[in-house]
Amino acid sequence: MELSFYTFKYALIKDGVVQTVIMVDSYPTAGQICMAQGCDEAVCVDQYLVSAGDTYANGVFMHEGNEIQRQQTLEEKCNSLQTALLASQDAINSLLGV
User: Fold this and answer.
1) Which of 7, 47, 84, 89 places its Cα 20 to 30 Å from the Cα of 74?
2) What distance lies between CA 26 and its chain's CA centroid?
């Protein structure tokens, strides 16, 4: 039997409250686990730092009354760092008169 490489995190939500966060290979798998656990929905949280007890409504996660912000993907972080590097190089070149 071959095991899948788990790549997605899903929050299992019941009555607007995150019950648990699971790692699965696909949305259908998350949906099956969600139903088996008696939860209302499974929401992908790959870019959110959520945990049991956080709330979820209208597409927004909250922790102790504060909105949980979406985290950047690795690609987005890389692009931001490349942009910052180019800006730094331009500033150094300007200072050196290059």
Assistant:
1) 89
2) 15
Q: Which of 71, 23, 22, 25 is nearest to 47 (CA)?
A: 71
Beta strands 55-57 and 66-67, pairing class: unpaired
- Residues 25, 29, 31: CA angle, nearest 5 degrees: 135
First-last CA distance in the chain: 61
Residue 97, pLDDT score:
87
**pTM listed for this prediction:** 0.75
3 pLDDT above the threshold of 60: no
Contact in structure between 12 and 44 (CB atoms under 8 Å): no
Q: Residue 18 forms beta bridges with which residues?
A: 13
